[in-house]
Amino acid sequence: MYYCLMYRNEWLKGSLKTIILKLLSDNSRMYGYEITRMVEDLSENNIQLTEGALYPALHKLESQGLLRSEKVNIGKRVRKYYSLTTKGQAEASKNLEEYFGFVRTMIVLLSNKPATT
Amino acid sequence: MSLTEIQIIIIEQELRESGLDHLPLFDEMVDHICCMVEANLNLGCSFQEAKQLAFEKLGPKEINEYQKQTDFLLQQNKILMKRITVAVCFIAGACLMISSFLYAQNVPSIMPLSNYEITSTFGMRTDPYTKEKRQHWGIDLKAPMGTPVLATADGIVITVENQPNGYGKYVVIEHEDNYQTRYAQLSEQNVAVGSKVTKGKVIGLVGSSGRSTGPHLHYEVIRDGKRIDPISILEDS
Ligand SMILES: [Zn+2]
């Protein structure tokens, strides 16, 4: 059976773009289901993307020109593959760097106690 | 393990019943669920179990969220168009009166039957056939066999079809402002695809075709691609 999300949805929401861009920069093209599985594997099952969040995010990134998609017929099914555009590649590395910077800052912020004077 | 054509059709059918059929992302969703079902099959589930697990994971909440998000995306272009329309109307004061008149004619704000009894409302209910809880995407109006069914707004007929395992004989009318109305379980369809209809025109007769327990009209209102409670936009409400 499946379980619900381990992390709060609002945290994931802010990270979704970063996750998608990173995975697509490591893999030339992926489809939605493949992304959800890889996120589960890489996060050791601690993060499960929901379809309701993933697909709209993919479509939004595509409309922003960061992703392109191609449809491939597999028997009776149509599979939609996403890959990074040149613009998307640049954004992916910039986004990842910023994200790491943000996480480092958060760790500093949340682990330091205010100095008592 | 790859799904057979029949199994894919079954999954498509079930997804349609969940109310995702009108989305441009339908194909993508079918592929996604097929992948989930295949993964479950590989764990040793039967097809039936595998499918049930996949849909359980998807769940009504997920489907709702998905719809909300994609409706938003679809509307982004429309919003710009609407803004332009609104601006023009403000400049010409008379335009406002005309558009409010058109609104009354274009919005499905009347009931499709003159005499009826509401036997099932919009929302979650127990399916009379399978006894399962699921969303009811319209309202059911009980009326004698052969009662005339009226178009609830001006529009153009876009579908006249028969779905023996679902809607039965049904008609879909497209209205302005992104409204559509669906009239199902009919005994007769009295319009053809492409015909123009005006508010109050007879488009068919009440019947019990398709998945139905007796003579009634199953009536749906679709706004911006999403089914809404028909009662909520009635003139007097
Ligand atoms: Zn009904």
For the structure shown, list the relevant keywords:
heterodimer; A: alpha+beta; Arc Repressor Mutant, subunit A; three-stranded antiparallel β-sheet; 3 strands; elongated; B: 237 residues; alpha+beta; 4 helices; 12 strands; 39% helix; globular; binds zinc ion
Textual characterization of the structure:
- The complex is a heterodimer of chains A (117) and B (237).
- With 117 residues, chain A is of the alpha+beta class.
- Chain A has one domain: Arc Repressor Mutant, subunit A (Orthogonal Bundle).
- In chain A, 58% of the residues lie in helices and 15% in strands.
- In chain A, strand 2 and strand 3 form a beta hairpin.
- In chain A, helix 1 packs across helix 3 and helix 1 crosses helix 4.
- The N terminus of chain A is likely disordered.
- With 237 residues, chain B is α+β, with helices and mostly antiparallel strands.
- Chain B contains four helices and twelve strands; from the N terminus they run ααααββββββββββββ.
- In chain B, the strands form two sheets. In chain B, strands 1, 4, 5, 6, 7, 8, 9, 10, 11 and 12 form a ten-stranded antiparallel β-sheet that branches. Chain B has a two-stranded antiparallel sheet with strand order 2-3.
- At the A-B interface, helix 2, helix 3 and strand 3 of A face helix 1, helix 2 and helix 3 of B.
- The complex binds zinc ion.
- The fourth-level CATH homologous superfamily of the largest domain in chain B is Glucose Permease (Domain IIA)
Strand coverage percent of chain B: 25-35%
Helix content of chain A: 55-70%
Q: Which value, in Å, is the CA radius of gyration of chain A?
A: 17 Å
| Helix/strand structural class of chain A | alpha+beta
